[in-house]
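In pairs, describe these two lines:
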Amino acid sequence: MTLFLGSVVYPSNSKMSSDNTIQILQIGNGNFLRGFVDWMVQVAQEKGVFHGNIYSVQIHSKEEDPRMLRQNNRFHVWEAGFSNGKEIDQVKEITCISNYSCIHQDFEGFLQIAENPDLQFVISNTTEAGIETRLEDKNLGIIPKSFPGKITRFLYHRYLHFKGDLQKGLIFLPCELVERNGQELKRCMQWYAAIWKLEEGFSFWLDQCCTFCDTLVDRIVPGFPRDNYSKVASRLHFEDELLVMCEPFHFWAIDGPNWLPNVFPLDKAGLNVKFVKDLNPYRTRKVRILNGAHTALVPFAFLQGFRTVRDCVEDPEMKIWLKALLFEEILPTLEGNKQDLEDFGKDVLERFANPFIRHELQSIALNGISKFRVRVLPSILFFHEKTGKWPSRLLEAFAATLLFYRGKFKGVNLPLNDLDYVTDYFKKAWEISDRNTLIQEVLSNIDLWGEDLNVYPELANQLTQTLESLELKLGGF
């Protein structure tokens, strides 16, 4: 049975979409969570390994999303791209969200969700800036501004409702891209418990009865496919304003207790979920290979006229350069299983070539210097430490980054998008005409790189030669 609203057809199910109990509180209702967590829970339900539903709470917008209300919390996820050389193009309807509300419209109603005895998990994605404490939240009687403040109030309500029952603690699985995100969330919540002077019993319950897992998530989720909706519309169960497009690749690493896979067995559904004891190798792998390749590629490719990642991997010469950068210069600097690293590198190239996703180089260029410092510079330094040589393609990426931060190319402004002090510094630095002097000046800037890079033998000379060669190749500025 369907409900017709104008020309749009929506499912007529009530908010409670199945008999499954609500076991997951989801903080955030954006594209990523819907195309990652909600999709995974749906798959796990269909495989019969998990039977809990989700209560999704809007936290950024001030009002409920009317599309969620019209569609009774249902939507589709469209996976499009390649996996192991095979094209994937499939649609799944998501029905695992039983309820939905906005935290800003009904905070008391949000707290009442804590009274659900079946609730086990809290999953969040409130952006990297979401896990923080705020001094203006120091009054317990005022609705906290921060996510950790709100969830501490929620947890305290649960503690009081169940009278400190040791079995009613919750499992936290934050998806924010913050190092040690679970422990950081716990630290923030302990801060609120202290500043609000909550009883010691609650602090003990928070520490001993709740489980905070560090996690690492990886999936490209562009969101609503505005330009490609017609390609998938005939396969949808209803006209979907909330359709989420994503790549087939997905990965979730969770550092938690030994018993966690038994209560959250997503891996048993064939999903790429790993329960691990150390996230560092996975984080380093992602940052240095996936993010590092992105950051190294952007200025080098942009200055040669490329505008999307896919354009780069479809160009024979650029693809050769990128493969050499990945497999000859980045991967050899990483610890871990060689085959796993190579497989991940192959996955990255496949993801870059996704014909369904238009990933603009300009969008990746945001805050390029800080990204280069974290994502690329360690590979350069580790390569030199291991081999005694400087990696030629990574140095080309370094030189291209410096050229990009000149701000203009052949009279055209480049799409710099960085902090003012960074762009101002490079504007002044590029007033130095001698390339060797320029390079030595830039490498000495500890604020940019975290150290004086002139201490590394021959780096300045090698980078100067690379810069001059690149300028000659590009035909001058």
Notes: The radius of gyration is 25 Å.
